[in-house]
Amino acid sequence: MMARKIRVVIAKPGLDGHDRGAKIIARALRDAGMEVIYTGLHQTPEQIVETAIQEDADAVGISILSGAHMTLVPRILEGLKENGADDVLVVVGGTIPREDSDELKQLGVAEVFGPGAATSEIVEFLQGKVPVS
Prior knowledge:
Strand order of the largest sheet: 2-1-3-4-5
Radius of gyration: 13 Å
Number of strands: 5
CATH architecture: 3-Layer(aba) Sandwich
Distance between the termini: 9 Å
Shape: globular
Number of domains: 1
Largest sheet: 5 strands, parallel
Order of helices and strands: EHEHEHEHEH
Number of helices: 5
Structural class: alpha/beta
Strand content: 15-25%
CATH topology: Rossmann fold
């Protein structure tokens, strides 16, 4: 029996209009054999949670450059929890100050990847954290 593919939702919440990084990550994850659902720009936390649940995602990758991560990410974590999907791994990428990064991890984010994080590092992190049986 083949191991199933890791399903990852890549999301761009809020008003941030830059999605090049998100698209690069999405492609790298696909190249690594994962199934990637890219939500596109300007998603609300509620839309992201809904997509993660509908797609039966193993992980959600949130790309944020707008500085609104301390508002948006907790709402996504909360939404997943409220919908019984708190086993979905949440990772965040973008320009996030160290102290915010620590706080996000305390709230339940699995990892925060800053600018310049290697795509291979993100791929390996997800492969190491998501059980695929």
